[in-house]
Design goal:
The complex is a heterodimer of chains A (about 250) and B (about 270). Chain A is about 30% helix and about 25% strand. The C terminus of chain A is likely disordered. The two termini of chain A are about 35 Å apart. Chain A is built from 6 helices and 9 strands. With about 250 residues, chain A is of the alpha/beta class. The longest helix of chain A has 16 residues. Chain A is globular. In chain A, the strands form 2 sheets. A 5-stranded parallel sheet of chain A has the order 6-7-8-3-9. Chain A has a 4-stranded antiparallel sheet with strand order 2-1-4-5, covered by helices on one side. With about 270 residues, chain B is α/β, with parallel strands linked by helices. Chain B has a domain of about 190 residues: P-loop containing nucleotide triphosphate hydrolases (Rossmann fold, 3-Layer(aba) Sandwich). Chain B is about 40% helix and about 20% strand. Chain B contains 11 helices and 9 strands.
């Protein structure tokens, strides 16, 4: 794939070169190819929309950049204050540092611990970044309110909430800290109007402040005003796949 | 290891500026003919939780016992980042030095409370004993610090004078935890800390551990065969099999994109 260069001349945040991902499924004795040789750039304050059919590797790309998945080959050069770090190859502890500090992953799925109050779940990233507890809670409540989570739910456990309410808690948590790079995995799926508006408002604000974003959206029209470029992913067709089919 | 998996090899840390809190290099340990641990390296950074998973006989508990200086390997070195110990391979310490170092700088919670507690002493006495070994001789101070530590472990203070043998399994683990954290150890070692507890009690003990870990940024090494426990607690995970580390990575990566055949079996068996 040819390099997609950022047009705006914004200073680069991420430069992906030849990035490839496959899954070795040992028990099936086969390899699942997700994407091959991806190349693109993402600048400060830029927003890339990932497009492609189910199974084209959109979410896989986001998880590979976040390093929940390990790439097979290639680079993802991420520009930090300390210099350029290749996300494809960085040490695990360095990835952990970046996740705490500047790279966020926003998904529709709640990944909070059970038996922790919604407001604490949202406040946690701030607390871990050093904000005093009381202050973090005030901020957390502000975001829960913005996303339309009812006040009586704030001290309750999100694991008992409906899917939509859980997602709001998750979004408030993911967006409470200003990041430098946001990976968005269908964050608007199943959101009601209030929450969707709060999300788009927050993303708009973050983009204006220079946060780079790349994401998959079920309804791209939600974020139409934010999109700078699109990248189309295609599912890889493997020619010798017939060999793997049980006859 | 990297070549085997067909993934991009990982670099040495660059952004993590802190020195490792715990570092072991080239650890090998045999029991007679059986090689329990084979050439294992471990690095844990300050405030990190390292999970070690593997089936029985994988060597994970042997490794933890060596971290607690209960056992010495045939080969390998061990360093903790302590003010006056940094240059020293801790395996060269004599018995007395080991005992002092353990009392002051290493906390441990065993699966079996009999290993960690005096079952006939009071709960507060068990915690105070740890402080006493480390040199605290003031009775009032001992009592109040033991109380503080038990409270932090969410032990019900009205039962502070109960003996561990009169307590439930979950409460016994809380006493062990209070004893382990009483002196703010450099590293807290946890050997199957919730195995054998009722599921509901297990969840509460894990909540306490997680809260303490976050509030105090305690460096932890957690050994468990229970992937749920590891998933709840660990930042990074090491997978052991037959004495060797077959894979290591960020906890979410180990669970979402396991590379080694054995790790895939483990993760799929759980889900």
């Amino acid at each position: 794939m040819d390099m997609q260069v950022s047009k705006s001349g914004a200073s680069p945040v991420l430069r992906v070169e030849g990035l490839s991902k496959q899954f070795e499924m040992h028990h099936l004795r086969r390899t699942l190819y997700a994407f091959e040789d991806l190349n693109f750039e993402l600048g400060e304050g830029e927003f890339i929309l990932l497009k492609g059919e189910n199974g084209a590797g959109k979410s896989t790309l986001l998880r590979t950049l976040y390093r929940s998945y390990r790439p097979r080959a290639g680079h993802a050069f991420y520009h930090t204050k300390e210099g350029v770090i290749d996300l494809a190859a960085a040490a695990d502890v360095d990835i952990a540092v970046l996740r705490r500090r500047e790279i966020g992953f926003v998904t529709q799925f709640l990944n909070a611990r059970p038996r922790v109050a919604a407001e604490e779940v949202v406040a946690e990233p701030l607390r871990l970044a050093g904000t005093p507890h009381a202050e973090a809670l005030v901020e957390a409540r502000r975001w829960l309110a913005a996303f339309g989570v009812k006040k009586q739910l704030w001290p309750a456990y999100p694991s008992t909430f409906s899917g939509g309410e859980q997602q709001k808690v998750n979004l408030a948590r993911a967006l409470i800290l200003p990041q430098r790079l946001l990976l968005l995995d269908e964050p608007t799926a199943s959101l009601d109007h209030t929450a969707r508006k709060a999300l788009v408002d927050r993303l708009t604000e973050l983009k204006a402040s220079g946060v780079a974003m790349i994401g998959v959206f079920h309804h791209p029209e939600d974020v139409a005003g934010l999109i700078d470029r699109e990248i189309h992913l295609k599912a890889i067709k493997i020619e010798d796949e017939a060999d793997n089919v049980v006859q | 290891m990297a070549a085997l998996f067909n993934t991009v090899p990982r670099h040495e840390p660059r952004l993590m500026l802190a020195e490792p809190m715990l570092s072991m290099r080239g650890i090998s340990k045999s029991f007679g003919e059986v090689k329990a641990v084979i050439d294992v390296d471990v690095t844990v950074y300050p405030g990190e939780v390292l999970g070690i998973v593997g089936e029985s006989g994988s060597g994970k508990s042997t490794l933890l016992r060596m971290m607690n200086l209960e056992d010495t390997p045939e080969a390998g070195s061990y360093h903790l980042s302590l003010p006056d110990q940094e240059e020293r391979n801790l395996f060269t310490l004599d018995r007395f030095e080991r005992r002092m170092l353990r009392a002051r700088h290493i906390g441990i919670v065993y699966q079996n409370p009999h290993l960690g507690l005096l079952m006939g002493h009071t709960s507060s006495g068990n915690v105070a004993e740890r402080l006493l070994i480390a040199g605290n001789r003031n009775f009032a101070d001992l009592r109040s610090r033991a109380r503080e530590s038990l409270q932090a472990s969410e032990f019900p203070l009205e039962r502070i004078d109960a003996r561990p043998r009169e307590l439930s399994g979950g409460m016994q683990q809380r006493v062990q935890l209070a004893k382990a954290i009483a002196l703010e150890p450099a590293v807290l070692l946890l050997d199957e800390p919730t195995t054998g507890l009722d599921v509901s009690v297990q969840a509460l003990v894990l909540d306490t551990l997680k809260r303490l870990q976050q509030e105090r940024a305690i460096t932890m090494v957690l050994v468990s065969h229970d992937l749920g426990v590891i998933r709840t607690m660990a930042d990074r995970v090491m997978v052991m099999r037959r004495g060797r580390v077959v894979e290591q990575g960020l906890a979410d990566q180990i669970f979402q994109d396991p590379q080694h055949e054995y790790t895939q079996q483990l993760v799929h068996a759980k889900l």
